[in-house]
Amino acid sequence: MPEVMFAGPAGRLEGRYHHSHEPNAPLALILHPHPLQGGTMNNRITYTMYQTFQNLGFSVLRYNSRGVGRSQGEYDGGIGEISDAAAALDWLQMANTNSNELWISGYSFGAFVGMQLLMRRPEIQGWISVAPLANHYDFNFLAPCPCGGLMIAGEADTIVPVGEIDKLVEKLNAQKGIDVDYRILPKANHIFANEADKIGLAIEEHVQDIIKQRKESLPD
Tell me: the pLDDT tens digits for 105-134? Predict the structure, then answer.
């Protein structure tokens, strides 16, 4: 997983990138938890998401947002971090100009950033949101949500009570043409201490199902 540095709105951003051996492989961008709470691209769940997409044959980028690790700049309350995500996505697409499939995958604060990016970039075709901060941020911007995705919650999460994510999923599923694959992990808290493998498996199952559905819907 080579280290990469690329230009962001507030200076250089640090990342780790895996380039798939498959020609024109699909792409995935991985988004880490809150910078002020110790969130980095090396977070265990963030790394699990990265590794899972790598194993699925994707070209994958995870990165540190501004002020984290060797990335330049300072935390910007979420606004600048969305711009960082857009810059990371630009870099990933420029490195893979022939790819025609793009996914985003975020955990906690990273899930909020990822869903904001989803609304700004119509080329994104799939998303993963693990423990999105549904009680800390207003997700009403997801109207209309451009596509369905995978939502994962922890049954024992005290940072984001599962009922708050229930409400978000219900709102999304009420939208025309949207189908959220919603999975609640029993006994899991916000850090998913013993559930990294389960998260990886859920992502693998969801992504494979969606890609299979798309292939089956193509005209002969």
Answer: 999 999 999 999 999 999 999 999 999 999
d(CA 218, CA 197): 32
Find tokens 């857009």 and name the residue. Answer: 86
Instruction: For residue 107, give both structure tokens.
Output: 């955990």
**Residue 203, H or E segment:** helix 196-217
Distance CA 113, CA 132 (A): 9
Please list the residues that pair with 106 across neighbouring strands: 31, 129
> For the whole model, what pTM was predicted?
0.97
β-sheet bridge partners, residue 99: none
CA 170 to CA 42: how far, in whole Å? 32
Rg (CA), the chain: 16
Strands 102-107 and 150-154: unpaired
How far are the Cα atoms of 44, 45, 191 from residue 24, in angstroms, in the given order? 28, 27, 34
Half-sphere exposure of 158 (CA within 13 A, CB side): 0
User: Whose structure tokens read 């199902």?
Assistant: 209
